[in-house]
Amino acid sequence: MAVPGKGPGWATVYVARDLLVAPHTFRKPTELTTAPPPAPGALAPALAGSRRRDTVVAFLRHLGCPFAEATMRQLVRLSAAHPAIDFVAVTHSSPARTRAWCDAVGGVGAVHAVADAGRTVYADWGVGLSDREHFAGRASLAGVRRLLAEGIHNRIASGSRWQRAAAFAVDAGGIVRWRHLPANAADLPVLGDAVAVLTGRSVG
Fold first, then answer.
1. Which domain holds residue 71?
2. 87-132 tens-digit pLDDT
3. Structural domain tally of the chain?
4. Domain for residue 204, yes or no?
5. Residues 76 and 89 sit within 8 Å (Cβ to Cβ)
6. What is the pLDDT of residues 4-18, one digit of tens each?
7. Can you tell me the distance from the alpha carbon of 157 to that of 66, in angstroms, rounded to the nearest whole number?
8. Stretch among 2-6, 157-161, 173-177 having the lowest mean pLDDT
9. 3-state secondary structure of 114
10. How far apart are CA 114 and CA 59, in angstroms?
């Protein structure tokens, strides 16, 4: 017997549910003027709450997305292991919905969650909208099934499925040292690589 929430057919069930309870997440939002994403060696754009320390910042897909949850789990684990580095997760939902989602996925530990409902911080960092293939293509759907087998599933959605994700490592001087711009929604960052660049030590 299939375990509810973990069989391959449940991915379709979760999407069908969101079509009923969160249809706005499927509608493409207004495209903002988006800067080029900062490359390694460039000065990082401003980020609320920055403390001029080494920082790993992850711009998340919509809340409820399993890829956003998998990324947050990485951030939480690494923040516990590397207290000298700041870890920031940026969402494009309201502060209240961001707090609720963070609680639902097990809390944020030492990660600082920034709510950017207007997506202006995303745009400043060059993290714009995707096309449909990016989040609904074969690679992304295979990734959903893979995470489902690990117990990470679609939750009630908030935000936009069209919003891209990205991740950056920024040193204490505000210079970008590493970035990950995903080829599709399932192309998750290996945030241990970001930490390794900042610390000069490999991360297991």
1. 10-25+38-199
2. 999 999 999 999 999 999 999 999 999 999 999 999 999 999 977 7
3. 1
4. no
5. no
6. 455 445 556 556 556
7. 10
8. 2-6
9. strand
10. 9
Gap between the Cα atoms of 51 and 192, Å rounded:
21
Going by DSSP bridges, is the β-strand pair 166-170/55-59 parallel, antiparallel, or unpaired?
antiparallel
Contacts of residue 109, defined as CB under 8 A and 6 or more positions apart, other chains included, come to: 76, 79, 80
Q: What is the mean pLDDT of residues 146-172?
A: 87
Per-residue pLDDT, 151: 82
Closest to 112 measured CA to CA, from 186, 178, 50, 168 = 50
- Whether 43 maps to a domain, the answer reads yes
The three-state secondary structure class of 43 is strand
Q: Which two tokens stand for residue 12?
A: 């379709």
Whether residue 82 is contained in a domain is answered as yes
Give the pLDDT mean for 188-192: 97
pTM recorded for the entire structure = 0.85
Q: How far is the C-alpha of 56 from the C-alpha of 195, rounded, in Å? A: 7
Instruction: Report the alpha-carbon distance of residue 104 to residue 160 in Å, rounded.
Output: 19
DSSP letters along 115-182, please?
Answer: E-TT-HHHHHTT--B--HHHHHSHHHHHHHHHHHHTT----S-BS-TTB--EEEEE-TTSBEEEEE--
Is 95 domain-assigned? Answer: yes
Q: Is pLDDT at 175 greater than 90 in this prediction?
A: yes
CATH code where residue 115 lies: 3.40.30.10
What is residue 135's predicted lDDT score, i.e. its pLDDT? 65
